[in-house]
Amino acid sequence: MPIRTILLNFDVDEANDALVHCAVDLARRLGAKLVGHCAADATPLFVGAGGAVMAANIYPDLREDIVTRQRRAEELFRQAVPAELAAGWLAPIEGATGSLIDHAARADLVMLGRPMAAPGNAQRCADLGDVIVGSGRPVIAVPSGAVAVDLDTIVIGRKNTREGRRALADAMPLLAHANRIVLATIDEGNGGTQRAAALAFLNGHGIRAEEAARSQADVATALLEICATTDSRLLVTGAYGHSRWRERLFGGVTEALLQEASVVRFFSA
After folding, report:
1. Distance (Å, rounded) from C-alpha 23 to C-alpha 7?
2. Strands 153-158 and 5-9
3. pTM for the whole thing?
4. Nearest Cα to 138, choosing from 239, 36, 209?
């Protein structure tokens, strides 16, 4: 399915010019509409009875500050988007993560920059992991400083799971623009079967891919090494083969890649 609409998330507390330019460049290449999204709400104030009146007075001021920041973000967005590119803007007063998940229903792809919500700041900063799990859409995470989503060489972190198959299918519109595609498999005893299935799928769409195999316990590190050796700036992978809470407690490939800042990551769950 082609990517017709990209939903670009703005952090209300941190304007990111580079992220906007990445999204504009990608929307141009894909012929997609770009919709900016900047949501936040005031963090609930938990006070005793004596502070209730003070809290009631502060809350409207906090929300007014959010509206001011949303207007600044919209100005940045409007200035960066060229007139020939279809665009839209959303600025709800809602928790950032929940709002982005809800509005993802109108898009084919979600883009955001900050890797994880700051502790205690979930109302103002979308949590990447929660968006991946809850949005039902592929998600691109752009590291700080990236100036474009480079589609020249794409590494596919392949595992023959539901999430891995979903990522491969979701990424097809991007793979069609690549000059080089590297199918990376980390040997867990059935690598040949994994590669054959993925290559057959790609070949069925007229896409050729080369193979890169590793035998390594640390899957995230192995995938990033393949990105480095192939000079790839985009990694496609399925997300959360285990529950997110299990990965947070015991570690996992997705949680490790959420923190990675050297490549653009394309996740599907």
Report:
1. 9
2. unpaired
3. 0.90
4. 239
- Topology (CATH) of 5-141: Rossmann fold (3.40.50)
Q: Six-digit token pair at 177?
A: 């623009």
- Considering only CA atoms, which of 112, 89, 102, 87 is closest in space to residue 34? 87
Kindly report, residue by residue over 173-214, the tens digit of the pLDDT. Answer: 999 999 999 999 876 555 555 678 889 999 999 999 999 988
Helix (H) or strand (E) segment spanning residue 232: none
CA–CA distance, 86 with 92 (Å, rounded to integer): 20
> Same CATH fold, 153-268 and 5-141?
yes
Q: Per DSSP, which regions of 44-164 are E strands? A: 87-90, 109-112, 139-141, 153-158
Record the tokens describing residue 132, joined without a space: 């991946």
Residue with tokens 């998940």: 101
Count, residues in the chain: 269
With CA atoms as reference, report the closest residue to 104 among 128, 137, 72, 55.
137
